[in-house]
Amino acid sequence: MLGMHMGRVPSPKGSAGANLPDHDTEYWLLRINRASLAANAEAGLLDRALARRIRAGLDDMEREAGEKDAVRDELYITFEPKLLKRCGMEASVLHVGRSSQDILSTMRIAIMRDRAMTFAESFDRVIAKILELARANLNTIVPNYTNGVAAQPTSYAHYLLGFAAPLLRDRARLEEYLSRYNISSMGAMVLNGTGWPLDRDGMAKALGFDRPVRNAFDATCEAPVDTALEFASIVGSVAIHLGSMVNDIMVQYAQPRPWILLAEGGENTYVSSAMPQKRNPGLMNNCRADCSDVVSEMNAVFMRVHNVVPGMTDGKSVAKNGRMPKAAVGMCERFLKVLNGLRINPARALEELNSDWTASQEIADRLMREHGLPFRIGHHMASRMVSYARANGLLPLNFPYAEIVRIYREEITEEFPEASPVFPMSEAEFRDALDPRKIVENRRTAGSARPSEVEAMIGEEEAALLALKSKLEAREGQVEKALEALDADFRRYL
């Protein structure tokens, strides 16, 4: 689905492309007219002989539209004259009870539905890959960061699940969106319905929709705008989450001895033109730019409909709104390549943990949990320990036990003299408290980085994704079967 090339130099910003469905305006104008023909002929509103003539005309128009360099219609007012030229003015009876308003509104909703489902497929692959990486890194211990500073040890799997969770929320919102807006505007006419006895429910089903838009005013004025607005908010949220993750990776990648890298070469990295040692993360740079492009398109959708009276076309443009799903699919496909290119070095990650004091909170926790010392006193003592270590070039693995005994005695004497000045932790317990692996293993709360808890969360998220994918497949099948049935129904008028 993604057409781009990166060699030894960065690819241009925005080069990620996406092969979205070719169900454009012309495609849906033809399907809507097929459905109108079948429904009206069945209801006795259209003479069967004329129906056959119109059917032949619509077939001719579809063949012509499929020819190379054919000009495909974007408006019903250019589509209908071509049909009347072929079938005669009496063919305009096909338009009874209709308007370009309900026709184009239905077309716009259908196109957004198609593209949202295509985006969902790409998005599902991203979430699936994150969960796959989480399962593969269940026991990979890495530093976790807050405010850009190493904070605590965790498993890389737990870190990845921290991104999978909001992405699955986005995906659930997308499923709700697909359900909420699988609606047809046909039969709404312009604003207030029509006096012709049209079967709105039947027309909706024939085009693969669940139901018609209930209110005729909403159907032509608000619903086609809301489909773009809500989809924009969803893909914008996805872009923010993916951008956050790729930027976090880039921070670590930029370190002198990073524990996470991209596999070199290909699309992933390129060598600086001046500095032989430098491997620029071209793929991540472009992916970050893709995320920004999606956020830009989100804002563009909102700005087009801002402060506009109902019924205006500003926010309904298929061409303009179509840039948004295209950018979103391209972003997902590029991000998937980032995930496939990641290389984690567990030994180096553990080395980084042992070169800092991310385990210091565990000292304060154990002094309270196991030995009854007030947490704040233990916290002050551990902070004093870290200050001493950094001033003297000491690390967790070589910190002298005698020094922690002395620091504890000073802290107790100054801030909590009623307690014993004897450090209550043995050297073995002290060393155990500084072990990043033990810290992770000893977590007890639901949602923690404890391996068994992480494994349970992976299973839950995999099940959630599978359920969402099943709903998407069912929805795609519903649309496909409806259009196949419409084609068969249309063919009856030979």
Descriptive notes:
The chain has helices at 25-42, 48-65, 76-87, 100-136, 156-180, 200-206, 216-221, 223-253, 282-305, 318-321, 323-341, 346-354, 360-369, 375-391, 401-415, 427-433, 436-441, 451-491; strands at 141-146, 149-155, 183-184, 211-212, 260-262, 270-271, 279-280, 342-344. The chain has 494 residues and is mainly alpha-helical. The two termini are 38 Å apart. Strand 6 (270-271) and strand 7 (279-280) form a beta hairpin. The chain contains 18 helices and eight strands. 62% of the residues lie in helices and 5% in strands. It is elongated, with a radius of gyration of 31 Å.
Characteristic key phrases:
two-stranded antiparallel ribbon, 494 residues, 62% helix, 18 helices, 8 strands, 2 domains, mainly alpha, Fumarase C, Chain A, domain 2, elongated
Write the layout of secondary structure elements.
Layout: H1 25-42, H2 48-65, H3 76-87, H4 100-136, E1 141-146, E2 149-155, H5 156-180, E3 183-184, H6 200-206, E4 211-212, H7 216-221, H8 223-253, E5 260-262, E6 270-271, E7 279-280, H9 282-305, H10 318-321, H11 323-341, E8 342-344, H12 346-354, H13 360-369, H14 375-391, H15 401-415, H16 427-433, H17 436-441, H18 451-491
Parallel strand pairs: 3-4
Antiparallel strand pairs: 1-2, 5-8, 6-7
Helix pairs in contact: 1-2, 1-4, 1-18, 2-3, 4-5, 4-8, 4-11, 4-18, 5-8, 5-18, 8-9, 8-11, 9-11, 13-14, 14-15
